[in-house]
């Protein structure tokens, strides 16, 4: 491959970049991801070693990896930041604390649950913690927390139907 200017390479890889962005269903921040793809193409252009294969295959892999890395980072950022924003918004709402009578009714119905099922009812249903938060707190998988919930709901339903 003869050394071409980066502008020529960028224009020749334009269809690839556009198709890759569409493939990942990126519509919201199209221009940002196009620039990220160009950065990936630039890295491929700078690091390419002709003795190791074709440039197009290397460029495809590098551009794809760059886009995916940025997508992953964006998703992780949104997962970390969004719950905090929701908590701040929920502070502004008027939340009435459970009336002592309601607390007593809840306590009566969860007496027969196991410790983990009680954790699910109290922390997920009443406090609003996510499966992920509860799983992290108790060192178990989110699937385990979901199973606690499934068992708790089944027992609570049976308890409520008996009354």
Automatic annotation (TrEMBL):
<keyword id="KW-0804">Transcription</keyword>
<dbReference type="InterPro" id="IPR014284">
    <property type="entry name" value="RNA_pol_sigma-70_dom"/>
</dbReference>
<feature type="domain" description="RNA polymerase sigma factor 70 region 4 type 2">
    <location>
        <begin position="105"/>
        <end position="156"/>
    </location>
</feature>
<protein>
    <submittedName>
        <fullName>RNA polymerase sigma factor SigS</fullName>
    </submittedName>
</protein>
<dbReference type="InterPro" id="IPR007627">
    <property type="entry name" value="RNA_pol_sigma70_r2"/>
</dbReference>
<dbReference type="GO" id="GO:0006352">
    <property type="term" value="P:DNA-templated transcription initiation"/>
</dbReference>
<dbReference type="InterPro" id="IPR013324">
    <property type="entry name" value="RNA_pol_sigma_r3/r4-like"/>
</dbReference>
<dbReference type="Pfam" id="PF04542">
    <property type="entry name" value="Sigma70_r2"/>
</dbReference>
<dbReference type="Pfam" id="PF08281">
    <property type="entry name" value="Sigma70_r4_2"/>
</dbReference>
<keyword id="KW-0238">DNA-binding</keyword>
<keyword id="KW-0731">Sigma factor</keyword>
<feature type="domain" description="RNA polymerase sigma-70 region 2">
    <location>
        <begin position="11"/>
        <end position="72"/>
    </location>
</feature>
<dbReference type="GO" id="GO:0016987">
    <property type="term" value="F:sigma factor activity"/>
</dbReference>
<dbReference type="InterPro" id="IPR013325">
    <property type="entry name" value="RNA_pol_sigma_r2"/>
</dbReference>
<dbReference type="GO" id="GO:0003677">
    <property type="term" value="F:DNA binding"/>
</dbReference>
<dbReference type="InterPro" id="IPR036388">
    <property type="entry name" value="WH-like_DNA-bd_sf"/>
</dbReference>
<keyword id="KW-0805">Transcription regulation</keyword>
<dbReference type="InterPro" id="IPR013249">
    <property type="entry name" value="RNA_pol_sigma70_r4_t2"/>
</dbReference>
């Amino acid at each position: 491959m003869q050394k071409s200017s980066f502008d020529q390479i960028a224009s020749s890889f334009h269809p690839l970049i556009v198709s890759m962005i569409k493939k990942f269903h990126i519509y919201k921040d199209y221009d940002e991801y196009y620039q990220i793809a160009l950065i990936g193409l630039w890295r491929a252009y700078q690091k390419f070693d002709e003795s190791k294969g074709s440039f197009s295959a290397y460029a495809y892999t590098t551009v794809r990896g760059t886009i995916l890395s940025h997508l992953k980072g964006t998703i992780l950022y949104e997962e970390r930041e969004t719950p905090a924003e929701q908590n701040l918004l929920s502070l502004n709402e008027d939340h009435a604390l459970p009336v002592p009578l309601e607390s007593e009714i809840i306590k009566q119905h969860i007496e027969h649950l196991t410790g983990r099922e009680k954790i699910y009812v109290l922390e997920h249903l009443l406090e609003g913690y996510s499966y992920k938060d509860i799983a992290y707190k108790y060192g178990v998988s989110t699937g385990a927390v979901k199973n606690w919930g499934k068992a708790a709901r089944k027992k609570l339903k049976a308890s409520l139907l008996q009354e």
